[in-house]
Description:
Blueprint: E1 6-11, H1 12-22, H2 36-52, E2 57-60, H3 69-73, H4 86-101, E3 105-107, H5 114-125, E4 131-135, E5 150-153, E6 158-160, H6 165-169, H7 176-183, H8 198-208, H9 211-216, H10 229-238, H11 240-250, H12 272-281, H13 286-295
Parallel strand pairs: 1-2, 1-4, 2-3, 4-5
Antiparallel strand pairs: 5-6
Helix pairs in contact: 1-2, 2-4, 2-13, 4-12, 7-8, 7-11, 12-13
Amino acid sequence: MTAKPSLHLVDASLYVFRAWHSMPDQFHDAEGWPTNAVHGFARFLLELLERERPRHIAIAFDEALDSCFRNRLYPDYKANREPAPDELRRQFAHCKALSAALGLNVLAHGEYEADDLIGSALHAARPRGFRGVIVSADKDLSQLLHEHDEQWDFARGQRWGADGVKARHGVHAHQIADYLALCGDAIDNIPGIPGIGSKSAAVLLAHFGDLDSLLARADEVAFLRLRGAAQMAVRLREQREQALLWRQLTTIALDAPLDGVEDDFARADADADMLDALAEALRFGPMTRRRLRQAAGLEPAG
């Protein structure tokens, strides 16, 4: 059987934030603004492109920092996060411009998060025979994995498919949204159901299969051999509507608009002038500039 073509889907924000926190602040652009995050992101992107040489790729950015559809459902969604400082917002724009200059498809939307854009791109590509390679360590994205897909924690060099999700999180890939609805997600400020932690959530889903069955049969929870089972049954009955709301928040959308991308998310020709202008403005060194031009196909690799 012919191998399925791969669509690489990059959770860019994760790598921009990682660079922002880990790279020294000695890098500045021609106007004196810090560029440590964009330098770190460029290194990551170059390593990915040089190693994988992807023909189909999309780089997803988070622009829905406080305007996401989830904020309308639950105003406290991600309310625990400090707004990004101007120095970082500026660098996000540079990272998007750099991706576009390299001929990569850039995904960003004011109402949908990067996870939704990745999910929607993969959903759109599946009928065309593609398998997804999701470049991110974020456990939320594991819910998207089907049989031939793969998730790649680039920094740790770890890859896993749908079958590997249970070993990592205690539940199957298709149960991740239900799992997070039950035990909550502190990173996104989703409370979950009080008294249900990650281990309890995994046990409940192993027994009932999904959140809908669990809520329909909540009375049965009291009879499980599980510490605090009687109280969990009470909470599940009392907080049925909240549990369903939390699942709305933890479920990745598959219908986000995907505007301005190439057919099948194919790499486009690089914009040499834009790439050179960015390299100059961001004060990239000669080695990074050469690697960028090579990755863009503007110079022979050597």
